Amino acid sequence: MDQAVVRPIPAANTADVVTFPQTPAIGEELLKTVLDNMSLGVLLFDSETRLIFCNKRYLEMYGLPAEMVRPGRYLRDLLLLRAQTGTMSEDPDDYTARLRNGLATAASFTHTVQLDDGRAFTVVNKPVEGGGWLATHEDITERKRSDTRIAHMARHDALTDLPNRVLLHERLEHELKRVKRGECLAVLCLDLDHFKSINDALGHAIGDQLLKLAAERLRGATREPDTVARMGGDEFAIVMTQMQQPTDAAQLAKRIRESLVRPFHIEGHTIIIDVSIGISVAPFDAAETDALMRNADMALYGAKGDGRGVYRFFEPEMNTRMKARRELEMDLRKALVGKEFELHYQPLVNLESNEVNAFEALLRWNHPRRGLISPADFIPVAEETGLIVPLGEWVLKAACYEAVEWPDGIKVAVNLSPTQLNNRNLLSVVSGALAETGMPAHKLQLEITETVLLHNTFATLQTLHELRKLGVQIALDDFGTGYSSLSYLRSFPFDKIKIDRSFIQDLGKGSEPLAIVHAVANLAKSLNMTSTAEGVETAQQKDMLQSLGCTEMQGYLFSKARPAADIRQFFKSGVPKAVDAAE
Ligand code: C2E
Ligand code: MG
Ligand code: MG
Hints:
Strand 11, helix 10 and strand 12 (311-313) form a beta-alpha-beta unit. The longest helix is centred in the middle third of the chain and has 22 residues, at 316-337. An eight-stranded mixed barrel has the order 13-14-16-17-18-19-20-21, surrounded by four helices. Strands 2-1-5-4-3 form a five-stranded antiparallel sheet. By secondary structure, the chain is α/β, with parallel strands linked by helices. It starts with 27 loop residues before the first helix and ends in a 10-residue tail after the last helix. Helix content is 45%, strand content 22%. It folds into three domains: 25-144, 2-Layer Sandwich (Beta-Lactamase), CATH 3.30.450; 173-316, Reverse transcriptase/Diguanylate cyclase domain (Alpha-Beta Plaits); 344-360 and 388-572, CATH 3.20.20.450. Bound molecules: ligand C2E and magnesium ion (2 copies). One magnesium ion (MG) binds next to loops.
């Protein structure tokens, strides 16, 4: 080994020159201490394969007694000793031949030793001057373990330890090769219904436990060769192999559903969920990984549209429908910039005085090719894509710009979608619209539907209260279409309940709708709220509503929603203009 020499750093100024003491030559004892304390096992052999030196660490690594590994012993003896003690599985002569060949043909000979106890060492042999070689043994057990861990993490979901999207794709790709040889397989895409509301209501910790338990049940419902993966959130996917016929996938879907609908018991809560499943089968629906996944996803979308808690097989028409939807989505993005939206206004009439109290702003989309599109068709798409946020903001401003010109006391009602209400900016958007247009807050009513309150989070209620504080009124729209409507009335002091059109339509049919409308009108009265009947189309309905105690009505009987210019005209003429219902 070279003597270590520290050279003085040359300095520009001689006055700064520092003289370092010469480092003494490292003596044999010192060198041995250094080598014995290294983390590597080190051995030095001469050209005759005799051991010149071996450090302590090597003996520890292989559990060898020092007296058996003395300088002068041959490599072969050492290897035999290791074979006896169980740390050498290869034949010593074979190994020696490989080593000789390796050292003769390359700059070094490297290999890995895997011990029965799980430890792994990397051995590097390098020739040294004079014909011998230096061997270093490095314990790589921890590094290997963490490499394995990292490789596992890259292909598994941390929460459930199920394969993730990456591994699912790999397995699917692999299994599809067998499809080419005549087998069939199915991909099932799963989505837990109502998971989001459970997560919101009971917290993420319980949501996480629910996902873990659901993952276990999914594993239990499938067979050994199937792959169950978590794709993220509450989405799972299954690759089902070794199928006899496509209907096997339907059987699996049924089994999965049966296992998931059983109540979960977590920290004192009994939780009930359901699942929607989309299925695509190779080679019938597609034979490539991406297309199969896409088709299963499309079938899942169809299953959710069918009311959730069901499974659906992929059908080619789904593709057409999805394309139409995607087109609508793209057109919708352009529509706001292209000024294709317009607001129409439908009057709300006071049932005692027969006077117009307010107008509801209803969005109309004038599509350049398809003509007028109903909000029922595009609002859900705007909701899903988040476009409802800028669109809703536009509606709010446009309605305020219009209504500020209306006579005092005439309010404008604007519909808010759940996404808008969950948006943190809503309060500033509303107050901004009022400030920009100069509209007094008391002229604005906001209509929300029960779905907003389904995820009855603290933040939502707080936003509603803050809007109220601005002086804006809040109405509960489409009342009665949700499944626990009455309880919502307790969660927030609404200014108005709008009874859904379906009850008004059924007024003449039996006593039940009558009793419901009567009860809601009474409840509204006692809670000091306005009760508005939606969709009033006949004079008979109007008379009934009056006798049942409703205080307001909206419907074609009085007028359909009309363009802003008509409303301005309406105020100018001063006479309520009855519009023909057949229009
Ligand atoms: P909605 O808020 O319940 O509005 C009332 C709907 O009932 C309107 O449908 C209206 O035209 C219709 N309608 C009113 N009177 C009658 C009647 O006598 N008979 C019948 N058959 N229908 C009547 P429209 O304009 O198609 O709107 C549908 C839904 O779209 C609205 O229901 C509302 O939920 C949503 N929507 C409309 N504009 C907006 C908007 O600007 N933002 C949001 N988020 N949603 C909107
Ligand atoms: Mg409404
Ligand atoms: Mg409504």
